[in-house]
């Protein structure tokens, strides 16, 4: 799927029928089966001069809305059927890098270069929590990636300061910091069981983290072992995006080295490396529908939808 600009982000709808690609000034929605473009979402009130990259997209769980986050600090909630903006969430002071809906569709999490993650109410667009990184010694703790746990009780935020922070969704309390990456963390994703988290970093590695029991307030982690369970090495350049398949069998990563790798989270070994893009793989998304499909967005101005059926069967 050819675009006129870099494809910054890709995401599937919960039922797997549609895929959204965020580009310069516009977001495109495709029918996954036919690859036909079914919608173009563009805020016509914005002047065409200059760039305005859509850095993040996320479908509401019911598939009716798409949230987009851009370089103009605004989060737009689009009604997909009418292709109109239903709501604009304002409050961030820098680019929006990441968005995620809670599974019940009631909350939206956002991460921004302004060193905060925020939690918003989908119903009225109000900001419910500002999760502020206030470590005095950190020079640039911009938030690059946010993810709700499957049960919605915690939120993970990756940062340029090499750390991942875990917050309590309900009360905004910082529960823990995950330290171990040697460079900025660009992407986080929960494993399906919600007990583990995968991260990708500019240090060219992925890490798998154990998140403890999540019972009550305290996260009971055996600190002797440390929360980092595994480090995945093999990419030759920055790891820009990570995800995992709905069955938890594969961790998937996209890198500046133009490759996509499938990793076995039990062994930490890479099983498959897929090439096809002519530039960085900026974004990877796995279809949540259970169909063995994933999408990539790249600096080569293309979004691609791939099948990993043969990988699943051959394993």
From TrEMBL:
<feature type="repeat" description="WD">
    <location>
        <begin position="54"/>
        <end position="88"/>
    </location>
</feature>
<keyword id="KW-0853">WD repeat</keyword>
<feature type="repeat" description="WD">
    <location>
        <begin position="143"/>
        <end position="177"/>
    </location>
</feature>
<dbReference type="Pfam" id="PF00400">
    <property type="entry name" value="WD40"/>
</dbReference>
<dbReference type="InterPro" id="IPR001680">
    <property type="entry name" value="WD40_rpt"/>
</dbReference>
<feature type="repeat" description="WD">
    <location>
        <begin position="89"/>
        <end position="130"/>
    </location>
</feature>
<feature type="repeat" description="WD">
    <location>
        <begin position="274"/>
        <end position="310"/>
    </location>
</feature>
<protein>
    <recommendedName>
        <fullName>Anaphase-promoting complex subunit 4 WD40 domain-containing protein</fullName>
    </recommendedName>
</protein>
<feature type="repeat" description="WD">
    <location>
        <begin position="178"/>
        <end position="219"/>
    </location>
</feature>
<dbReference type="InterPro" id="IPR036322">
    <property type="entry name" value="WD40_repeat_dom_sf"/>
</dbReference>
<keyword id="KW-0677">Repeat</keyword>
<dbReference type="InterPro" id="IPR015943">
    <property type="entry name" value="WD40/YVTN_repeat-like_dom_sf"/>
</dbReference>
<dbReference type="InterPro" id="IPR019775">
    <property type="entry name" value="WD40_repeat_CS"/>
</dbReference>
<feature type="repeat" description="WD">
    <location>
        <begin position="232"/>
        <end position="273"/>
    </location>
</feature>
<dbReference type="InterPro" id="IPR020472">
    <property type="entry name" value="WD40_PAC1"/>
</dbReference>
